[in-house]
Amino acid sequence: MKTTLITPCTLGVALLAGSFCATASAEGFVEDSKASLMLRNQYFNRDYKDDGSKSQIREWAQAFIAQYSSGYTQGPLGFGLDAQGFLGVKLDSAPGRTGSNLLPIHDDGRAADEFSELGLTGRIRLSQTELRLGTHYPLLPVALAPATRLYPTTFRGGSLRSREIAGLNLEAGKFDRVNLRDSSDNEPMGVAAPNARFDRSARSNDFTYAGGTYQWSPALELRYFHARLEDIYRQDYAGFNHRLPLGPGALRSQFRYFDSREDGQARAGQVDNRNATLNLTYDLGGHSFGVAYQHMTGDTGMPYLMGADPDGLSEYLYSSDFVNPNEKVWQIRHDYDFAAIGIPGLSSWLRWVHGYDIELPASLGGGNRSETEKQVQLAYVVQSGPARGLAVRVRHSWYSNDFNNTAAFRDDRELRVLIDYKLDLL
What InterPro entries does the record point to (predicted)? Predict the structure, then answer.
């Protein structure tokens, strides 16, 4: 069993929070506490349809995620603590079909039977401003780490969030280590580098970000962030979300723009990318009809943190990230909420994504490459009874490209089954 070591930084967070509980009024700290246990089961099956060296990835695993979040101690300066314990257990795997990112892989090519970790986050609050120290689970445009496997990628460091001005949410943070979703180890950070975009061996101990979100009106939200992975890349993000009542439904508009370039010593090589995305969705009854376009320019693909996801059209895509050099992407999507016809809890999506004008190294296929992914998902959340809240999602995708079979992304068919059940303990 592989378990995260308690570092001096993590131990300091725990001791700090404990001392405040002992010396300050713990009434709010205890009374406002919440605790839960998440049971998460995932099955992953990817069949490759080319003549590459690996024909299949197939694994099945179970996770137990215990979460605790205290309230705040009494007084102008409030102290709190978050704790999260994770245990992942292998249910099925074999050396020839590892690589789902559900489980760590040992040097002999076998998946670990189990792995675990502990995350602690100390919180200090003054008025509407909060400082967090310890383990972070960022969901930011410049650091996006959703829970697409058993456990999300986490980062170690500190962050500050302020909501002192109505409608304005300011954020800043600094991370020095990453814990990948299929690992128990904190390690230096890097840039994701599929298809030889960047030097995957480059590492940094300093990722910083700052930015904010402003609610201009009930219908319009504006966002800006700046991020820097020291000596690797810098990135600026600007975007907006807008909702416009239109006819019997409503039109949602989302725009995102990223401008990325190398930083300092440029350890991962040149970074030169601009990425603009416009997503339009029309909501009508239980239907959501969407069309989106992504346009990239520059000499490289879009950089994003190793272990994280790019915040663009590739969110929740399975087989590719669709941010290769010079890539242009179209997406058509349909979502349906079956509550509109009297079946609450049941939902579906259909999605088609096509990227073209891709520039790859000659060894991977060269220029004018293309890729396509098609997806279908059916999901149900139990609405009542003893199993209330049990969520089941079945996802199937078809992916194809005209890259060489040595590229990071290969033709495949993929099936995922995800089951989540959360038990509230406090």
Answer: OM_porin_bac, Porin_dom_sf
